[in-house]
Amino acid sequence: MKKHLLLLLMLVVTLFTAGNFFVSLHAFRTQESAMDSMMRSYVLDLAENFSNTAAFTGGRGQAQRHGMPGMMRFRMLSADPALQSPEAGGLLVLSREGRVISATPGAERLLPLWKGSAPDEAPREALDAKGESYYVVVRPLDNGNFVLAAVSRTYLLAPLTRVWKTWILSAMTTSAVVLAGMLLLWRWLAVPLRGIAERLGNVGWGKERSVRLYSGPLAELESLSSVIERLAAESFEKEELKKRYVTDLVQAQEATRGQLARELHDGPLQSTVAAVKRIQLAKQSAPSDADSPLRTYLDTAEEVVQAAAGEIRSYCETLSPSWVRLGLSSALEEIAGRFARAYEGVEIDVDIDMELEETAAALPEEHVLSLARIFQEAASNSVRHGGARFVQVELHKEGDLLRFSVEDDGSGFDAYAYVGTDFEELRTTGHRGLANINERVRLLRGTMRISSRPGKGCLIEILFPNPPLPGEDSPSLGQASS
User: Fold this and answer.
1) 316-361 pLDDT per residue, tens
2) What is the 3-state secondary structure (H, E, C) of the chain?
3) pTM for the whole thing?
4) CATH class of 323-482
5) What is the CATH number of domain 2-166?
6) pLDDT tens, residue by residue, 108-137
7) Where are the domains of the chain?
């Protein structure tokens, strides 16, 4: 109901206004018809009243002795207040030849209206030489003469018609203005508001620097659009600032890891290698007796130091992996092999579209490292927390984007609980895995979708732009786009 309330209100007002307009139009036409009928009846009464008297020139017999003289009857009828003004109309007594025998004051000018009129014909409307409208009727007299009655429609009905027309036209004009106003309100307000609402639902906050929602004649909607545009710009700047922060943070982490790997390699690893060499030299100087305690101690020391050297090499490889320079396919295969050795019974399958083999091989080291870290984090969470025994890693093309996904058959979790969640908040609650993955996704300038239900495994999908081939210009990873 709320969704269509504005539309319903505008529809009700529009229908009421349109109804009022048509009712006013009908009233105007009805009033015109009533006025015409009244004037036709009036002019007919004038003619009938005179034609029913004795003959104008006076006849012989009973009618002459007891009837009122014709001249007196004519004068009494012509004394009608409505006929006192020559412009209002008049009565004419005409001979068979059309000669005026008698007339009310000024009525001679109505003689041209005689043309086209026939006795016993219903009142008709005629125009005089000036174009004024008259109702005209002709009736025969007993002596063969005729009486012509004419009444001015323009003069007699002008005051009443003016009042009616003014009221009705005012109502019609008001209705038309309101109707036009509602149509303009719908066109300039309701439709733009609906467009603004739909556009706002699709705005990528933090991803669009300029969000122009309205450009029209209403200053209020212009102001609303300007406020939203400013908020979008601020959101974009905050997102870009966060991206730069994450970029700097990850780069600092990788730099620290690289430095730590170099320190371990150049320090403890070299020392352990040197210790192994010294132990091996000591074994050469020790008694060759296999049961000698010194020989046993040296063998144990060599084994321990060799294991320490292997762990240090593993740490160096983890902190600053050499497989980054081998391309994404080799990097993922290397990580999958290490996981399979570290977690016995876990199967990891890497699937990259053949069409993307060249793209995967040409990915910048920053992309390879980010995707590899995402895979490491996701696979580690799947095995350690979800108890997964199978992990599927895929790289496919989806439109103009690349789709990187990690899916497992583990115990899963309620992914709906994390919809709309700021992944940085998860870091403070101990869910560092998703927060770390989200950091890498930001570096790729991509988006992450998580699909999971308890007992149904987990699917992490990452969509990111296809990086340009070597030699093409593009902004560095994680930098804000203009």
Assistant:
1) 777 777 777 778 888 888 888 888 888 888 899 998 887 777 777 7
2) CHHHHHHHHHHHHHHHHHHHHHHHHHHHHHHHHHHHHHHHHHHHHHHHHHHCCCCCCCCCCHHHHHCCCHHHHHHHHHCCHHHCCHHHEEEEEECCCCCEEEECCCHHHHHHHHCCCCCCCCCEEEECCCCCEEEEEEEECCCCCEEEEEEEHHHHHHHHHHHHHHHHHHHHHHHHHHHHHHHHHHHHHHHHHHHHHHHHHCCCCCCCCCCCCCCCCCHHHHHHHHHHHHHHHHHHHHHHHHHHHHHHHHHHHHHHHHHHHHHHHHHHHHHHHHHHHHHHHHHHHCCCCCCCHHHHHHHHHHHHHHHHHHHHHHHHHHHCCHHHHHCHHHHHHHHHHHHHHHCCCCEEEEEECHHHHHHHHCCCHHHHHHHHHHHHHHHHHHHHCCCCCEEEEEEEEECCEEEEEEEECCCCCCHHHHCCCCHHHHHHCCCHHHHHHHHHHHHCCCEEEEEECCCCCEEEEEEEECCCCCCCCCCCCCCCCC
3) 0.49
4) alpha beta
5) 3.30.450
6) 888 888 777 777 778 888 888 777 888 888
7) 2-166, 209-320, 323-482
